[in-house]
């Protein structure tokens, strides 16, 4: 332990802040946010309503991303923007503690509406946070910093996800879900305080507003079309996000309705997936220092197709371990690849707008895809829908290589 403490203290100050902050971020994501769809299914929500839980925020962020990027570019403090956005988001999630005490029909619609509305501050917070991530570490340290941050997130989320599932199973309803939503608010406040300690370099005089960036979707798309590498990145990621988001609602529906999995078992599955993610992140944090390994990171975007494929073949709740293993193994590498590729195709000056443009395209895909996924399942059956989606994921993953996005330049 002393050796670990010394290694941590030897890290750059800002990296230590990001590593400490992400642990509390994991409490929110592995607790309240991971079980929000489960909560709706247990309330009796229809398939299309579960799909709307992912689709509606994506629609709102599609409209809000570029205006929020313009807003972020005018601000002097990226940390303040990120924290205010997070405070609004986490306060609303904390207020969800009242939902279990309401009639199920009312609770379902209030959840969907509130989840959609808080996507507006989320759009600003996302642009601000991704932009400040680009300032915290130099390009040569960034992949390792991202993988370490995600590894710490995975460790925390593994513990929280397991405990959350056990808590939901052991405690009586509505106290169980109410306390879970309140815990997200408390953890969110701690996360905000830690992030406020971040020290970013002061913007150079004249840089703010001296180089106006595209503010409208048409202008941003024009910039993307005129930059081949950025254009190819956006084409590949948009196709990939379609395949990634299509089964999002189907996973929860399949676990709860088709397999009859309990909250405790779902929490255990989340834990296994996150533990494997942690192991993968730690392994990648060392391997990605070598360019020859980074050149093959895109393969994870093809491997993630095993998640819906293996889930479609599950016959018992115990077999749901298989997709969790696939997701934990390939999902972590996929996250690092997508994030680092965005930094590679953008510059520090245009990154806020390009992050917003990329988010807009991704959110269009994420809005359409869950509804397509539930419609496909209703038209056929959920198993066939998952198999079709697995095939689409393979094709979209290969597009990174075909379009040259995956080809890191050799030294």
Care to describe what's here?
There is one protein chain. The protein has 411 residues and is mostly helical. The protein has 19 helices and no strands. The longest helix is centred in the middle third of the chain and has 29 residues, at 142-170. Mean pLDDT is 83; it is low at 209-214. Helix 4 (47-73) crosses helix 7. It has helices at residues 2-10, 13-33, 36-43, 47-73, 78-95, 104-117, 119-136, 142-170, 175-195, 217-226, 228-245, 248-258, 263-287, 291-294, 300-303, 306-312, 321-345, 351-379, 382-402.
- Overall, the morphology is globular
Instruction: Please report the number of helical segments.
Output: 19
CATH topology: Growth Hormone, Chain: A
User: How many domains is the backbone divided into?
Assistant: 1
What are the low-pLDDT stretches, counting only 5+ consecutive residues below 50?
209-214
By CATH, the superfamily comes out as MFS general substrate transporter like domains
Helix fraction, binned, reads over 70%
Return Rg in Å.
Answer: 21 Å
> Cα distance, first to last residue?
38 Å
Please report the first level of CATH classification, the CATH class: Mainly Alpha
What's the architecture, going by CATH?
Up-down Bundle
Beta-strand percentage range: under 5%
Pattern of helices and strands: HHHHHHHHHHHHHHHHHHH
For the biggest sheet, the summary is:
none
What's the mean pLDDT score?
83
Give the class from helix and strand content and strand pairing: mainly alpha
Structural descriptors:
single chain; 411 residues; Growth Hormone, Chain: A; 19 helices
